[in-house]
């Protein structure tokens, strides 16, 4: 089957290539001016990283594999500092490139390592999770976590290309795949409700990496993201819609010391945002219920402990959409009609939380 190429427009346009068995496309995305490639790969995925390094070596690149801890443990300043030392030792220059191979945690780190080294070297991202393909690797948000909050240190640094080889999804742990579905469903609520129809028609198929609609779901979600970031790379307005559900989600991730899957937190956060919309008279109860039903149909959580509220409320203060002490939320005025809720009062915030509390 041929690969699909989805363009991301902007000052430095690039392509997101989607298909099965497409790792051979990597040299084409790196370009022929690059000589040396630092491959920052999730250490738990040698069966993906090794063949990819071979593809690069056969294409004539000098390849330096740099394994990093799997998952969220990669998004730490110590790991990033270790990569800077490696870049210095290897003599990585501005004519070289970084390739990031792994889930969203790995590509966020690799992207930021590329953004920060020599004030920016070329990167190509090879996401190996559903979440990475439909969201993290596309759009140029890169970064790491700090104890004070999620993704608080980072940069906008668009990749030179993104390679989504659907065959890498087969080995994914089920719960991590489900976590990625939360971002797919998010794309459905904010922009492309056909995604919701596909999931609702066959939740079991949607929850399987080799399901009948996997490719269509990936491509639809990538198109949503590509269109948004093409119009607003630096999140000066439109891009905020991709943050639907994330204000509460990041607070949950912090409260759980980053051991709670991102997509699971986003699922709960979307129900919270939907409740904010309903309680302010902007969103119908039917659409709120649709959030719960579609998320639950694939096994995503929609509630969180009641006693967590004070800590979550405190953590939401550092949300990047906030302006000073004023919290700002992405809410829906209807399906695919994202809007903003500015400065909600404390009672409204707590009332919406009571609707998700268990
Ligand atoms: N930059 C962005 O725009 C953006 C968007 C969404 C999410 N994110 C970030 O992405 C991260 C979450 O990404 P994720 O869900 O991909 O998590 P992840 O990178 O932690 O990967 C999840 C798990 O899957 C394993 N894994 C990855 N690929 C595999 C494969 N093919 N086979 C078997 N196991 C595999 C990993 O080892 C890990 O244990 C969060 O840090 C989140 O903040 C960033
Ligand atoms: O690309 C974006 O913009 C997003 O908000 C996508 C989110 O799914 C993603 O989790 C992102 O990393 C969150 O960004 P943050 O700026 O809130 O840290
Ligand atoms: Zn997200």
Automatic annotation (TrEMBL):
Presence of keyword Cytoplasm: yes
Top-rank taxon: Bacteria
Swiss-Prot/TrEMBL cofactor(s): NAD(+); Co(2+); Zn(2+)
Pathway(s) of this molecule: Metabolic intermediate biosynthesis; chorismate biosynthesis; chorismate from D-erythrose 4-phosphate and phosphoenolpyruvate: step 2/7
UniProt binding sites for NAD(+): 70-75, 104-108, 128-129, 141, 150
Catalyzed reactions: 7-phospho-2-dehydro-3-deoxy-D-arabino-heptonate = 3-dehydroquinate + phosphate
Keywords carried by this UniProt record: Amino-acid biosynthesis, Aromatic amino acid biosynthesis, Cobalt, Cytoplasm, Lyase, Metal-binding, NAD, Nucleotide-binding, Zinc
GO MF terms, alphabetically ordered: 3-dehydroquinate synthase activity; metal ion binding; nucleotide binding
Enzyme Commission number(s) of this protein: 4.2.3.4
This protein's GO CC annotations: cytoplasm
InterPro entries: Dehydroquinate_synthase, DHQ_synth_AroB, DHQ_synth_fam, DHQS/DOIS_N, DHQS_C
GO biological process: amino acid biosynthetic process; aromatic amino acid family biosynthetic process; chorismate biosynthetic process
Location (main, coarse): cytoplasm
Residues given in the record as Zn(2+) binding sites: 183, 246, 262
Binding note for cofactor: Binds 1 divalent metal cation per subunit. Can use either Co(2+) or Zn(2+).
Record-annotated 3-dehydroquinate synthase N-terminal domain positions: 67-177
Pfam families to which the protein is assigned, alphabetical: DHQ_synthase, DHQS_C
Subcellular localization(s) per the UniProt record: Cytoplasm
Top-level enzyme category: lyase
Domain 3-dehydroquinate synthase C-terminal: 180-322
Entry function: Catalyzes the conversion of 3-deoxy-D-arabino-heptulosonate 7-phosphate (DAHP) to dehydroquinate (DHQ).
PANTHER family in the cross-refs: 3-DEHYDROQUINATE SYNTHASE (PTHR43622), 3-DEHYDROQUINATE SYNTHASE, CHLOROPLASTIC (PTHR43622:SF7)
Family of the protein in this entry: Belongs to the sugar phosphate cyclases superfamily. Dehydroquinate synthase family.
Name of this protein: 3-dehydroquinate synthase
Provenance organism: Thermomonospora umbrina
């Amino acid at each position: 089957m041929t690969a699909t190429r989805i363009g991301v427009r902007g000052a430095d346009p690039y392509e997101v290539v989607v298909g099965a068995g497409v790792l051979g496309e990597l040299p084409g995305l790196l370009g022929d001016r690059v000589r040396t490639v630092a491959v920052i790969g999730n250490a738990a995925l040698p069966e993906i990283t090794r063949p990819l390094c071979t593809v690069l070596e056969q294409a004539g690149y000098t390849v330096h594999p740099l394994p990093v801890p799997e998952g969220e443990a990669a998004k730490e300043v110590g790991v990033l500092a270790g990569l800077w030392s490696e870049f210095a030792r290897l003599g990585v220059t501005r004519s070289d490139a970084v390739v990031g191979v792994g889930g969203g945690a790995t590509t966020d780190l690799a992207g930021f390592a590329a953004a920060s080294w020599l004030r920016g070297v070329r990167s190509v991202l090879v996401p190996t999770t559903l979440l990475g393909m439909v969201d993290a690797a596309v759009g140029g948000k890169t970064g790491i976590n700090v104890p004070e909050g999620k993704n608080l240190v980072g940069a906008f640094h668009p990749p030179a290309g993104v390679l989504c080889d659907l065959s890498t999804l087969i080995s994914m742990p089920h719960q991590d795949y489900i976590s990625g579905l939360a971002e797919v469903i998010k794309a459905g609520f904010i922009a492309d409700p056909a995604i919701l129809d596909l999931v609702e028609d066959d939740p079991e198929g949607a929850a399987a990496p080799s399901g009948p609609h996997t490719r269509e779901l990936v491509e639809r979600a990538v198109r949503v993201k590509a269109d948004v970031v093409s119009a607003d790379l630096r999140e000066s307005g439109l891009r905020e819609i991709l943050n639907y559900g994330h204000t509460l989600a990041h607070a949950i991730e912090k409260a759980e010391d980053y051991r709670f899957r991102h997509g699971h937190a986003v699922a709960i956060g979307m129900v919270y945002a939907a409740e904010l919309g309903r309680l302010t008279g902007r969103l119908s109860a039917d659409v709120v219920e649709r959030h719960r039903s579609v998320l639950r149909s694939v096994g995503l959580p929609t509630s969180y402990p009641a006693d967590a509220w004070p800590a979550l409320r405190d953590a939401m203060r550092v949300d990047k959409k906030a302006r000073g002490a004023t919290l700002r939320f992405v809410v829906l005025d209807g399906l695919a009609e994202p809007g903003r809720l500015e400065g909600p009062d404390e009672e409204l915030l707590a009332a919406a939380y009571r609707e998700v509390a268990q």
